[in-house]
Structures are given as C-alpha cells and as structure tokens.
Specification:
By secondary structure, the protein is an alpha+beta fold. It is built from 15 helices and 33 strands. The strands form nine sheets. Strands 3, 7, 8, 9, 10, 11, 12, 23 and 26 form a nine-stranded mixed beta sheet that branches. The radius of gyration is 29 Å and the shape is globular. The protein binds zinc ion. The site of zinc ion has 7 residues, from loops.
Length: 568
Amino acid sequence: MRWSKALIPTHKEDPADAETVSHRLMLRAGLIRKLTSGVYNYLPLGWRAIRKVEEIVREEMDRAGCQEILMPVVSPAELWQETGRWGIYGKELWRVQDRNGRFFALGPTHEEIVTDIVRNEVRSYRELPFTLYQIQTKFRDELRPRFGVVRAREFIMKDAYSFHRDDDSLDETYRRMCDAYTRIFERLDLTFRPVEAATGAIGGSTSHEFMVLSDTGESEVIVCECGYAATDERAEGTVRPIETGESPLPLERIDTPDMKTIEEVSEFLGIEPWRLVKTIIYEADGRTVAALIRGDREVNEAKLGMALGADLVVPAGAETIEKVTGAPVGFSGPVGLEGVEIIADHTVEPLVNIVVGGNESDVHLKNVNPGRDFRTTEFHDIALIGRGDSCARCGKELDSFRGIEVSQAFKLGTKYSSCMKATFLDEDGVGKPFVMGCYGLGVSRTVAAIIEQHHDDDGIVWPTSAAPFDVEILAVNVKSDDVRQAAEVLYDELQAAGVAVLYDDRDDSPGTKFKDADLVGLPLRVTVGDRSLKRGVVEARVRRTGEQTDVPRDGAAQEIQRMLAALT
Ligand SMILES: [Zn+2]
C-alpha cells in the first residue's frame, strides 16, 4: 500500500481522553476513530491487525476441530425469555424493536441462538461431540465504556460452543480449547496467564479467563506461590480478623454533617477505617437486602449472590435506599433496620464498638455491637479477597497483578439445554439435555492487549504475527529520481514475493516520516535514501531492537525476506 494514497491519519500529540497506552497509540497511529461512546471505526491499519489476529484464531479453532458458522447479530426476545436472560442480563443487553413492535436483542453472546440451532438439527448421541464457532460483531451496552476498544459497546469476538453427551466429553473439549487459546496467545507474543474465574451472567460450574498482564488492565488477579490464580471476583481466601479484646461501651449517637464516605467519617472520628462498618443496600433478584462489611474491605457481589442464592445482585438506587433506611445515601446502618435481610461478612462478627450509619441524615452511631444492637440474618464470606489476605489453599499471603481479560471459557453443563428443552437420544434410547461448553475470545480487545505489551516511547512495536504490514519502505526524498526508482523496484519485488508492504512515498519531511514509521511500528523498516544508495545499499532497521543493517541494493528483496523470516 502506498502511504500517499492510504487513510493513515497519524497524530503527533496524545489525544486528551485516552487513559491507556493502547487507546492512545491506536488513535495516534490512525488505527481507530471513535464514532460515539464505546463504538469505533477501524481504519485500514487497525482493520488489517484485526484480520491478522482473526486468521490466527481461525487457524487454531479449525486445528482444534471446531466448525466455523455465522449466526445473526439480531435475535428474537422470545429465545432470551426461554432462558430468563431477557430479564437477568439487565441493561447491558442491547434491545431493539422492529416495525411491528417486536423486541429483539443485539447479541452480546450466542448461547440461546446456538442451542436453538442444535435442538432443531441434532438428534442422536452419534453426532456428538462437536464445536461451532463464529467471529462476529457483538454488542454490550456498557455502563462505562472506556480504554478504547478494551471496554467498548460494539466489539469483535470469537465465540465457540461445544455440545456433548456427558461431562467427561465436555472436560476433554474444555482442555483442548484452553490449549488452543494458549497457542493463539503464544503466537501473538503475549505474556498471559489462565486463571480461575467467576461465571457471571453466562453461568455454569467452572470458568477460566486468560489474562494478559498489564498495569492498566481492568482486572485484578489474585495469585499465590502455591500456583493458585483467580480473578478477584472469584478468588477464595481469608481476611485476617481484627480482635481488640475491648469491652462493649454504651451506644452513642453522633452528628456527622455531610460526611458520607468512610474516609470523611473515620478521619472526623479519628478511628481506623475497619471500625466503620459499611451497610450497603442491594437488590437481589427483586429482594432488598443489606450487606455489612468492614470499612477497609469491599463486597464481592458474586459471593453475595451465592450466599443469597440470587442470579443478579446490583446495588440499590437512591430511591430504594431512602425507602428502606429512611435516610439519604451514605447514612445506612443496621440498627433498627426493619423489613430487610441483613447479611454480614464473617469479619464483622468479632468486632466490638463499631461505627455505623444512623439511618438518619447527618447521623452515625458509635459503640455499636453486633448481637447487642442489631441482629443479622446470617454471617457469610462476602468480602473481595485481595493482596495480603491468606490463600485458601495453603494459607500463605496472596499477591496480585493487573490484567486484561482476553478470553474466557465456561463449562455450562445443561444450564441452557435444560431450560430450552434441547435434548438428544442417548445410546439407551433416553432423551437427555446436551452438556455444553462455551469459549469466548475478544478479537478487538486482543489487538489492544498486544499494543499494551508491545510498545515503547516512540510508538507501537508490532510482533510480526499481528502487524498490519510486514515491512515499511521509507523513501527519504521522493523528489530524487534515484531514490524513487530504487524504492519502487523494491516495493514491486517484495509485493511479488507475497510480503505485505507499506511504502511511504509521501512528499513529506524525513523527520515526519521517520516519526510516523516508529509510531506505526511495523517489524522492519527499509530506508531508501540518496546517501546510502551512493554506497550501493539500503538500510534495514528492526523496530523491536533498533538493530540497523546495510543491505546491498542488488538482491535487497531476498535479503529483506530472509530478515523477516528471522523475526517470526
Ligand atoms: Zn496458596
């Protein structure tokens, strides 16, 4: 591709609203442009990188024995109502209506649709197991789209679904799919780690996420020396209890004007944050519950859901909080709280003389004692586990790192097939629900993850497997006949040999062109200039190492192909 004719709108300056390296560089190098919040255009360089990643994903899926299909983006509400997800999915499910007022979903994932195909077409155990996959645009109406294509509302995903007679067969495919993911991420030169994950809105019994290590990643991964690794949502561990041995003091009412946060109240009272116990009001499948947690900890909503036996747990809105507690947000407390279940974290049980909200505007209560001053319905482990807590497996202190979740695998079991009545006839002549697995991989997000791990101060440093082009030819001065001629010959020869070439033939200053070359970051840059041509050479430079080599002008195309091969 000739740069002079290409749509590669590079920017010298960092965009103001980009928080992460990948978001910044994808905008600056002209890979993407925002259309509206969480929705992006992929320009030529970005789209070529996406297609390179897709090709690797496709090769590895096919190698693992999966079959590619394409399902529609639009699916009727009735299918989602069969599984109950029309309600459970909440606002993230993007709903549209047709001209007759019928409701449809823009697919965030395709369990319902693929299960519908299989229940209509597959009858016998003899046809099992098999795995279907697609690479497609997905929609999730994210509350807070951010980090460019990492958390977008429209994105490209590979999703695969496997169908089995029994759990053993599912286990085997699950392992094979995790192996395929490992090969994909290795081929893309990513440093990653599979970790145990929560099952969330997809459901099922077991799940793993593949995390690409990145300081700006949205996910917190909890790890232990013993080999345990899990997302913070999923991680099991023990929070060290705090026991002071104090005697209970008489309850006191204190004025805390406009003090709503843990920091404000604990600073005002001169107490450690743990002594201030938070009361958080949640809606859990339509029930209203109050969760109590130490002020220095956060509630793990997945664990809370499990403790309550609820599928969907969301913090209650201001209106519900006022109705339940009689006070504005920030002053909820368990004392005198009527008509709601109170679930407390285990670590609240041994506390003495705590501070809680007074269920009254600008009031807190001091020297509150669980058992004496309020009753909890139950104590549960509902705390988010973090660095410094104890490992549930070996008891050692847990550590953590940040990551970008690039893929997730689930053992769904019969969650979808049971409620959608998708059955096959087994060997014994009995109809049984299909046992299922599902396996997602964020393609557009993976491109961002590659850039997070492969860049320097000057720009992107593409691994060859994902690079939009293999080589950039940079003609230093296109007004020179000799330079232009040498560059054109090399461009033709490399293209004829099947090398993907970006040829910077722009009539621009060398400074601009060299800066853009580093920003766009192709694996190999070949500079054609008057000075080197006088010596009978062109200059090849490896982007990753900065290593520069003189390549004789005659036979340069062969030598450059050899250098490229050495880079992969
Ligand atoms: Zn451990």
